[in-house]
Amino acid sequence: CQAVCFASAALRLRDDGTFRVVQFADLHFGENEDGTWGPKQDLESLALLREVIKLEDPDLVVFTGDQLTGNNIRSNATAYWSEVVSPCEEAGVPWAAVFGNHETMPFEGGRRAHTNVEVASSTSRHALLQFDMSHNLSRSCLGEMGDGHSVSNYYLDVLDASEKVAVTRLYFMDTGGGDYDEKIFPDQVNWFKNVSANTTMPSYAYFHIPLPAYAAAAQHPACVGMAQDGVTPVATDSGLFQALQDAGVVATFVGHDHGNDWCCPGADGGPVLCFGRHSGYGGYGSWARGGRVLSIAPGGAQSYVRMESGEILHNVTLASTAFV
Length: 324
Prior knowledge:
Strand order of the largest sheet: 2-7-8-9-10-12-11
Oligomer: single chain
Structural class: alpha/beta
């Protein structure tokens, strides 16, 4: 896989050596689009995005999947996508996105006449990502795999303040779902191994559905954060967790299970495993909304949840072996 990127400007550290990422998870725009409560919750989600961006002033926003509830959207997915990214455009903040299991989920009630065949969402992963990349502030890349399904597989390097040397890497991966299986394919793991080989800079990974390792990590006594939901992992990770550990990835960030925002130490010195905070007023659950922040500084990295109210919760110092 050779990722295709259209971004015109590099990501770089601030002059003080810091870099801040805000993760927004599970926005679920487009529900009940012909009614009243769906558009109302989309407006509430937009208000949250604007507020957290204003409070954090991030260098990058990451959308970690289920930006849209595609099973409620027939043909206007790009219009909803434009809504999702509009707060970033207003604030001049670049973003990157991966897909969840809902963007291309078959349209509910959409079946071909006189058959039981589901009608797929009319906007494919490929088309949605290309649309996202057409925005000037998008840093997303089209990283299609030989499996024929996953498309949001790529990485972004963060340069030093002089834009001469890469000092941090952010990986993004597609965990499937919707119109195909919720899984990590072997070719995705092989791609990750190839691009991470001989890379010693601190790195972090973003995707939507947790790996099976999250279920084991949830039992660790050092976990920090809200754990009011189960862990619903991909069917198989095809060895991705081990590859992440071998590459020295510091932490991974996911969504999917809306009632969790915890960070837990990974097994056997693997990456710290974190959930983002449910950010959208769409999707299930009535927990207070927010976003998860990755704050990188010369002395290391921290992560915390920034609530829509302005409150900061669950601050942890990230390390590759445990919390310190």
